[in-house]
Structure of Capsular biosynthesis protein:
Amino acid sequence: MTTMLFISLAKHQGLYFNRLLNETELQGKVVPPPQMPWPRLLQTSRVLSRIDWPSLIEEKCEERRVKKKNDGRLYRLLLRLELIWMALRAQALLDRERPDVLVFWNGSHRYCRLLKALAPPGCKTFFFENGLLPDTTTVDPQGVNYLNAVPRDAGFYLNYPYPVPENQAVPVLIPRQPRTSGPAPIVLPEQFVFIPFQDDRDSQVRLFSPWIKNMREMFALGERLAKETGLTVVFKEHPSSRETYPELHERTHERLLFANGNATQQLIESSQFVVTLNSTVGLESLLLGKPVLTLGQAFFNIEGLVMHADNAEQVVELARAFPQWPLDERLRRNFLHYLSEHYCIKGGWKNADKAQLQRVANRMLGKAEC
């Protein structure tokens, strides 16, 4: 029987993982980091040689900088000591449990990274996350978001072997709950480009956005787009972000607007096209049949599905070329059908019923598609 080791970094993760073990045939154990065994110091040299310490430390320090926290020499020293200590505990855990499978939520946390680096040869992985489509769950053997296992080759979708209906019902998106009560909706311009902000703290921005490092840079790009093309640009701040942008609001004018009170679905559907780093709004735009221009590393950066720009000059050039973009409607339909029917697991984890738990278990055990 396959033994699975579920690493729980938060209460909700542990509750869901325990339900999987208690209500399906999955066999394993849920372990939060505080319950990892004490290290065996004789393992130190073997463990130290298997970790990419500079990368791990720099990523955590970058996260601290984004959050406007100190990342000086003392912090780096303490971080290195913490990581060495936790790496030794992770190795002790793996030696004790000898799992066939490691299971993580998201997988970007430094403790998850340590466990992945120390996993023995042949040990499989699964990564959980909120589903890519409404009311779904992600369970992926490679990672989540840009690191996931969704095929990136356009030919896969153009030669898709399953029948896909041409006319599908327009989905209704699930609104994200804002941190605070927002402003009233604005009257939208007749034509505009929609640029949704993302959360600067999120790994999607920190790790997978090579040339736009934060939303102030995103706003500056929108300013340039409006100035050099004559297009109207409408922004919406991320509803869960802790960051505020009073100085950006002061730079708005009739062709550069914020619409924080408007529904995202309305902004997508009313826009000419959507510009995003790599956010869920980009995927939602594809669901709603709206052209998308990506700026970062996104798993849906597929030729014919979206347009992509690696610098500001390319953004301006592509905006001027719109609507003459070489996008393929059949590819879009097949891509979304693959996500819906073969990749995403139906049912959200937050309100999972017995059937949802069994679909997840089937996926992890390699049983029939769920």
About this structure: The longest strand covers residues 124-130. The chain has a mean pLDDT of 94.
